[in-house]
Amino acid sequence: MDTQKPAEESNIEPAGVGSEAPTTKSVNSEFFVIKPSPGKGLGAFATSDIKYGTRILAEWPIIRVEKYEYTLADINSAFDSMSAADKDIFWALHSCHGQDPAKWPAQGPNPGLPDELRERIAEQHAARVADAPSILSVFQANCMPFRAGGGVYAVASRFNHACMPNVAFAWNDNIQKLTLHAARDVRAGEELFVSYCDELQPKEVRAWSLAHYGFACECEVCADDGVEGSPGFKHRVNREKLQCLADVVNAISIDHIPFAMHFGPSHANQRLMALFEVLSIMKEENMFGSQMCIVYRELAMVCEEKGDYDNAVVAARKELETYLRIMGPDSPMIPRAVALARRLKSRTVEEVK
Ligand SMILES: [Zn+2]
Questions:
Q1: What b/e string do you get for 137-161 counting C-beta neighbours within 10 Å, with b at 16 or more?
Q2: How many Cβ atoms from other residues are within 10 Å of residue 6's Cβ?
Q3: Largest Cα–Cα distance of the chain, in whole Å?
Q4: In this structure, which long-range contacts are made by residues 246-250, counting pairs with CB atoms below 8 Å and at least 24 apart in sequence?
Q5: Which residues sit with Cβ closer than 5 angstroms to ligand 1, an ion?
Q6: Which of 190, 241, 264, 267 has its CA 20 to 30 A from that of 89?
Q7: CA angle 178, 320, 160 (to 5 degrees)
Q8: 42 alpha carbon to ligand 1 midpoint, in Å?
């Protein structure tokens, strides 16, 4: 991920179809090129119109750790096993070092945390406020999913962030690659963005998450969000509405809690209305990622609970259709979505009997 370093400071040439860059792999993509993005170093730009659901990249990382709570020692050890060519690519990526310590909590990690976790937070903090780039500061700024841990990718890590991304990413265990899919129709020339944070959260929370990558977001969702009538203001209002539907938002956040646990089994209509409202806002906000799949799944469950099997099937098929578009037919999520749609379909047949 390359978000802060101005293009003129970058020591690599834009890499794209037909151009050989000296320190990074050329991107032989029919869909995009990597080239300077104003104020953001390099970024990925569509070279043709891209249809919603198109797989634009499938990639194996240049450095990887298999555990989620990796330490400095884990990263340094993974770095030692990299090839010289991959190390060159790695060092050409953005680093999140050089941050102002005053912008981070002065007291350091919570003393109540286990020693190992406190040490991990302290290591990452030291890398962020250091004067020079380090293996950890580059890893942190570019880390994306890899199995149960994280990895840095020669190409995918070049995609910049937006709070309303047009590209969805996911680790695909079946093909052992990180995949990127267009999360809506994209026009030729548009910059391709992924989201580094939970974009359902309010701006203040997003800003805190993004500070870990070493930048302040000025995307169309974040910009002018306090100016009434501006597009940013509309996005703020929409995301505040999602916060008001807090139980629903919790149900679709990273630590997914089944929606039924929030309302209990006797409020199906209330849950149904809340889910429709969430779906409507998510569509308005172009949030067509995995969170939308979870909303469709919850919708299918609520319809089933109400005995409305026809609409339960419709919702389950929407979940499947969305996973197909943002993760592809080879994703491990597909059999699970197919199984739900089939189970609900069999209930409509039972009804007819
Ligand atoms: Zn933003």
A1: bbbbbbbbbbeebbbbbbbbbbbbb
A2: 11
A3: 72
A4: 247/274, 248/274, 248/275, 248/278, 248/295, 249/200, 249/278
A5: 163, 217, 219, 221-222
A6: 190
A7: 35
A8: 17
Q: For the chain, how many helices (H) and strands (E)?
A: 12, 10
Q: Quick: pLDDT tens for 94-126.
A: 999 999 988 876 555 577 888 888 889 889 999
The two three-digit tokens of residue 201, written as one number: 């959260």
Question: How far apart (Å, rounded) are the C-alpha atoms in residues 83 and 73?
Answer: 18
Of 247, 351, 255, 253, nearest in space to 303 by CA: 351
3-state secondary structure of 202: coil
- Ramachandran angles phi, psi of 171, nearest 5°: -80, 130
For the chain, domains (ranges, CATH) are 7-199 (2.170.270.10), 245-352 (1.25.40.10)
What value does the mean pLDDT take over residues 45-61? 97
Distance from the alpha carbon of residue 83 to the mean position of ligand 1, in angstroms: 35
Token representation of residue 137? 């500061």
What distance in angstroms lies between residue 218's CA and the mean position of ligand 1's atoms? 5
Give the number of residues written for the chain: 353
Tokens read off for 250:
């919790």
Please, are residues 294 and 251 in contact by the beta-carbon 8 Å criterion?
yes
**Sheet of 63-65: strands edge to edge?**
63-65, 149-152, 144-146
Q: What's the CA-to-centroid distance between 99 and ligand 1, angstroms?
A: 19
CA of residue 241 to ligand 1 center, whole Å:
17
Q: Which among 141, 136, 138 is positioned nearest to 123, based on CA atoms?
A: 136
Sheet with 167-172, strands from edge to edge, namely 55-59, 177-182, 167-172
How far is ligand 1, taken at its centre, from the CA of residue 169, in Å? 17
ipTM of this complex prediction, to 2 decimal places: 0.99
pLDDT at residue 249, as a whole number: 63
Amino acid at site 287 = M
